[in-house]
Design a protein that fits this description.
Shape: globular
Radius of gyration: 24 Å
CATH architecture of the largest domain: 3-Layer(aba) Sandwich
Number of strands: 22
Distance between the termini: 70 Å
CATH superfamily of the largest domain: ANL, N-terminal domain
Low-confidence stretches: none
Mean pLDDT: 91
Structural class: alpha/beta
CATH topology of the largest domain: Rossmann fold
Number of domains: 3
Length: 550
């Protein structure tokens, strides 16, 4: 059976259980396994009426919702290729993506999204709205997916494109089937094979590979998956859902950590005293520099303070946080461990069907992203580049044979990431090869570790971008509400721990935070370094002119 048949079988077995829900203003809009299958059947009937043929692309443009999931499953079950499109992305960027993959049909959540596309593309393919898809009736009771071979493409997911046009990553039925099995096996370890439903909270867009894989894995496991529908209410919704686990990006965990610090600082008194002393004791414990009395303060905090933080932050059920998309600052991971909340890190790319590694819950090594998942081989190539092969590797980019040939060589996928592995096979990601800065001194410098350290020391900063390719020294652009003296003090502290060629000699404070809307972040929140350098070209030149003059 295909992975879709496995999912449909599980939904049928869970016909009276809630498997999917939206959180809207603190209330749950829920569907059972049977109700979700009915929605899938309606969507399949609509698609069948459009007389599409196997392998046709079908664009799906909408925010997360129960109906999004139903249409996604229906498209694949009909033998079509789903092209998930990020609803917050600029219409002109979405149009470029669709011109690349030429969908036969575009399904939009509402007319506003549809009009955004048509206004930028008068020759757009046929469009329909969710209300059209679910407006009719379905007489079919079949839950069997169309016959699919492992090599058949079922999804076309566009990468974020940090330095150019996004590329369409083809994912096959075999890719996804293998990944769902691996992800579920890791979750079995986390849940200790506990019977019953997992409770899962989810806020990341389902258009991203890792997010999508988690959704499919949840359906395959018969979990109860709660979808956040308002990003401004994540904190409230995660407490409402009270999940066993959920998928995160480092940015959210950093914000959660800062929010706790700020709240306890405002509370003051005995709570602040216990919390501050316990944090200091925890740091010394990690550095093997424990002092007399540290155990007392940690014990007191574990009794009086940390349980309250956990409950207010996430609820009582949490087994672990799962974090991916970028390396997590080790101090943040250790912070949550101090609170009694394990953080499992994952590493992967869209081209690897979202995952290459995932922490084993029984043996988490802080600062690393865990061992390779079952069936996946990883090794280091030139410049410590991560090379991967296995059933999770995509067959190629859509209509880009030259780009495919660059990354798929001799049976290995060249990730473009630099890394190292310890004796136990736990991997640590250092940075992206294409982001390497080579100053006039000739050193190869990964900017990400320096940027992360500055952000840790300078909590009011939103983003940091290190500049210096071909220059005689490094500089930085810092966004957020940051006073100049605070930025300088933070850089002085960071520079003291760095060799001379990695030290930041000058900086520019940018009032505008980088965002998807202003074109300086990718759809999944990564820095568009080339665009940032171009946008701040004048300011960057001034940093080097002033420094030379002084």
């Amino acid at each position: 059976m295909s992975f879709l048949d496995d999912i449909f079988e599980k939904l049928e077995a869970s016909k009276d259980l809630v498997v999917l829900e939206e959180i809207r203003d603190g209330r749950f809009l829920s569907v059972t396994g049977r109700e979700l299958l009915d929605l899938v059947a309606k969507a399949r009937a609509f698609l069948a009426s459009r007389r599409l043929t196997k392998g046709d692309r079908c664009g799906l443009l909408a925010p997360n919702s129960i109906r999004w999931v139903a249409i996604d499953l229906a498209i694949m079950a009909e033998g079509l290729i789903v092209v998930p499109l990020y609803s917050r992305q600029a219409p002109e960027e979405l149009v470029e993506v669709m011109k690349d993959c030429a969908p036969s049909l575009l399904i939009c959540a509402d007319d506003e999204l549809r009009k955004g596309i048509v206004s930028h593309w008068p020759g757009a393919p046929p469009q329909c709205l969710f209300e059209d898809v679910f407006g009719g009736n379905s007489s079919s009771s079949s839950v069997k997916a169309a016959a699919t071979a492992d090599a058949d493409p079922v999804a076309l997911i566009y990468t974020s494109g940090t330095s150019g046009m996004a590329k369409g990553v083809i994912l096959t039925a075999g890719n996804i089937g293998h990944m769902l099995g691996c992800a579920s096996a890791r979750l079995d370890l986390l849940m200790n094979n506990r019977p019953g439903q997992d409770r899962v909270f989810h806020y990341l867009p389902l258009t991203f590979a890792g997010s999508w894989i988690l959704m499919l894995t949840s359906l395959l496991r018969g979990s109860r998956l709660a979808l956040n529908t308002d990003l401004s209410k994540i904190a409230v919704d995660m407490r409402t859902a009270s999940p066993d686990y959920f998928l995160n990006v480092p940015q959210l965990l950093e914000r959660m950590r800062k929010a706790v610090d700020e709240q306890i600082w405002k509370t003051g008194g005995v709570v602040l005293n216990i919390y501050s002393r316990a944090k200091s004791a925890w740091v010394r414990k990690q550095e093997a520099k424990a002092e007399r009395g540290d155990g007392f303060w940690l014990g007191l905090a574990n009794w009086l303070v940390f349980p309250t933080i956990r409950k207010k932050m996430i609820g009582n059920n949490l087994k672990a946080l799962i974090c991916g998309s970028a390396p997590l600052n080790i101090e943040t991971q250790l912070y949550f461990m101090m609170l009694g909340i394990p953080v499992l890190q994952a590493y992967g790319l869209t081209e690897t069907t979202a995952l290459c590694t995932l922490d084993d819950p029984r043996d988490v090594e802080p600062g690393r992203v865990g061992p390779a998942i079952t069936g996946v081989e990883m090794k280091l190539g030139v410049n410590d580049e991560v090379l991967v092969r296995g059933p999770n590797i995509f067959p190629g980019y859509w209509n880009r044979p030259d780009e495919t040939a660059k990354v798929l060589r001799d049976g290995w996928f060249h990730t473009g990431d630099q890394a190292e592995a310890d004796a136990k096979g736990n991997w640590k990601i250092i940075g992206r090869l294409k982001n390497l800065i080579i100053p006039a001194s000739g050193h190869n410098i990964a900017p990400e570790p320096i940027e992360d350290t500055i952000l840790h020391v300078l909590p009011t900063a939103q983003q940091v971008v290190v500049i210096g390719n071909g220059r005689s020294y490094l500089t930085a652009i810092i966004t957020g509400d940051v006073p100049g003296e605070s930025a300088q003090a933070a850089l002085d502290k960071v520079n003291a721990e760095l060799p001379h060629y990695k030290q930041i000699r000058a900086f520019h404070l940018a009032a505008e935070v980088f965002s998807i809307e202003n074109g300086l972040l990718t759809a999944n929140g990564k820095l568009k370094r080339d665009q940032i350098a171009e946008r701040y070209k004048t300011e960057i030149e001034e940093l080097y002119r002033v420094k030379r003059a002084s």
